[in-house]
Specification:
By secondary structure, the protein is an alpha+beta fold. Helix content is 28%, strand content 27%.
Length: 610
């Protein structure tokens, strides 16, 4: 149990989970580049003792492996798991009152504890005193990547009606007035967005506190999808094994456990350009107007340590966050959507673009012919639930004669492709919302979704080599097998949708002219078929982050019947489009500069084995 981040760092170091970097390191690109290399190598947490331009130390990669995360929470993990299970299934409490009484007591002990005044070791500082870490070359400035953004419901103020979320915070750059303004990036459906909407209607500013650091449990609480009625602040105390301590100063909530606290107000209608920012899809999110926070005061505790992470093309440290959350929440989706057995947001595809799901088929048990029925209803529930609603592609089936596991991604996709009726089982949702960070659509937050539903007996054997019909189709070439049933094909560079439509019409006609091709239900048109087929993760990333279902899915022998689209073979145009955001590319000069840290005798010598 840790009272502060410093306690956690000491514990990790004592047990061989942390390395100190004693050399001075530049927060402009160097710190992030070092982190990325160590994370990729499965290395330890990193304490940067000398951050150029700041007197504060910084730490990263705290949650870099599931093993390390579970070590951090080893004393409180079981209580937290039990509470979430109890909230997900309250009937258990009635059936086993004595067994669950301890869980209720644990939750009661975790209730926030109000204190008076500011902590004695808090000092007032400025934004410019912080470690101003810029992660990628085209980023708009320095960002906070592990913030705990706190706001209260203007209609029902108080800590038990608060929201603690992890929304990115831009500290410098763009049009922000230094030390007086910072940017907040979040969608309106998030908790803070709801609070801001209420404050706007009252014509009043929304007071916001941003906590950075403190016990790692507080950081995790900001991203946890918690059951209804379990507040982030209570969960923070539960997982920390210590009540969340807070007070108010000039109307702002102050965490007594945080290393840093930034306070300020969001005023109705006030926005400024925020971004670009290298994000978790592996591309930059571009510059858009988002709320601006007028900074009131900034505090730091004595010997405060600045925690950060780096996001980019998965897997990254936020992948480990996801694994940790899945371990804790378990089967919560079964309670939220009865009939759904499993939903897996595919990390390699950037999480939000692609979902694999298992539902139930109980509607017509008397019929011998099996086809999707109940899973079509369940799919609508999945695509309308919380963060799952940001998905673009949903592949869904139901267990029949064999157990399925959505985390065995290649096997699961093959199972769907073996059974799907491409003339019946593809369902589009057009002109709808997608993830703000996804630039494959038609505008910010706008795009389309598609459901591939499959159930019943196997309909086809999938090709295990490139079919002859997919070779010699100029100007399309270099057809390569990605996995059974999926072939990647190189195409000319994408120019416009008008031209693409003509190109794909030609390609579909050429394939159709060579006869039926049932063994290859999915073809991916791309810029580099060697890259896309070299690794299954490359296929998932490039295919599903670079396509908008309504605009980029074509089909061999496609046709409409009573508004329903059908085809014999699906073609996904995953070429890079001019309107899409650029991918994240490290700065070669920085890559060269940081080698000094990994040389023999340097702080990280030997960390990159081989």
């Amino acid at each position: 149990m840790y009272a502060h981040l410093e306690d956690c760092i000491a514990d990790l170091e004592k047990n061989g989970h942390l390395i100190r970097i004693k050399e001075e390191v530049d927060p402009y690109l160097e710190m992030a580049a070092i982190h990325l290399k160590v994370y990729e190598a499965g290395g330890p947490a990193l304490l940067f003792e000398k951050v150029k331009g700041s007197k504060f130390q910084a730490v990263s990669n705290l949650f870099g492996t599931l093993e390390r995360s579970k070590f951090i929470f080893r004393h409180t993990w079981q209580d937290a798991e039990n509470i979430i299970a109890l909230r997900n299934d309250p009937v258990k409490a009635l059936k086993q009152p004595f067994k669950t009484a301890g869980n209720g007591l644990a939750a009661f002990k975790a209730l926030p504890l109000k204190k008076s005044g500011l902590p004695a070791d808090f000092r007032e500082i400025s934004i410019s005193d912080l470690p101003l870490i810029q992660h990628w070359p085209m980023d708009g400035g320095a960002f906070v990547t592990l913030p705990q953004v706190y706001s209260e419901d203007p209609e029902k103020p108080g800590i038990m009606n608060s929201n603690l979320g992890m929304y990115r915070v831009q500290l410098t750059g763009n049009d922000y007035e230094t030390d007086k303004e910072i940017g907040l990036h979040y969608q309106i459906h998030r908790g803070i967005g709801i609070h801001q909407d209420k404050a706007n209607k009252q014509g009043a500013p929304l007071k916001v506190s941003i906590f950075v650091g403190g016990p790692p449990a507080h950081t995790l609480s900001a991203v946890m999808p918690l059951p209804e009625g379990l507040s982030e602040m209570t969960f923070a105390g539960l997982l920390a094994g210590r009540r969340f301590r807070y007070s108010y100063a000039e109307g702002y909530c102050i965490s007594h456990d945080a290393d840093f606290v930034i306070t300020g107000e969001i005023h109705p209608g006030e926005t400024k350009p925020e971004g670009p920012f290298g994000d978790h899809l592996g591309y930059y999110s571009l510059t858009h107007p988002f709320p601006v926070l007028r900074v009131h005061k900034v505090y730091a505790r004595e010997n405060a340590i600045w925690p950060f992470t780096v996001v980019g093309r998965p897997p990254q440290e936020d992948t480990s966050f996801g694994e940790l959350i899945h371990e804790l929440t378990g089967d919560a989706i079964k309670q939220e959507i009865p009939g759904v057995k499993e939903v897996h947001a595919v990390d390699a595809a950037g999480v939000h673009p692609l979902l694999f799901a298992i539902g139930s088929e109980r509607y017509t048990p008397y019929q011998q012919v099996k086809q999707p029925a109940e899973i079509l209803t369940l799919a609508n529930r999945v695509l309308g639930t919380g963060q799952l609603s940001l998905a673009k592609y949903l592949f869904m089936t139901a267990e029949d004669k064999q157990p399925l596991d959505t985390h065995k991604e290649k096997d699961f996709l093959a199972y769907i492709l073996e059974r799907i009726d491409l003339r019946r089982d593809i369902h589009f949702y057009t002109n709808t919302t997608i993830d703000t960070l996804d630039y494959s659509g038609t505008g910010l937050n706008t795009g389309s979704k598609v459901l591939f539903a499959a159930y019943g007996d196997k309909k086809r054997d999938l090709c295990t080599e490139v079919p002859a019909a997919l070779t010699e189709l100029s100007p399309f070439g270099e057809a390569r097998l990605v996995m059974p049933g999926v072939v990647a094909m190189r195409g000319p560079a994408f120019e416009t949708y008008e031209k693409a439509s003509l190109e794909l019409e030609h390609l579909c006609g050429a394939i159709a002219g060579k006869g039926a091709l049932p063994s290859c239900p999915m073809i991916v048109l791309c810029d580099d078929s060697e890259f896309l087929s070299a690794d299954f993760a490359n296929f998932l990333w490039a295919t599903f982050t670079r396509s908008n279902p309504s605009h980029d899915i074509y089909g061999v022998n496609s046709a409409y019947a009573y508004k329903h689209w059908a085809c014999d073979n699906v073609i996904i145009d995953a070429r890079v489009k001019p309107h899409q955001a650029p991918p994240l590319v490290p700065d070669p000069e920085v890559e060269k500069n940081i080698r000094r840290l990994f040389a023999p005798g340097a702080s990280l010598g030997g960390v990159l084995k081989g």
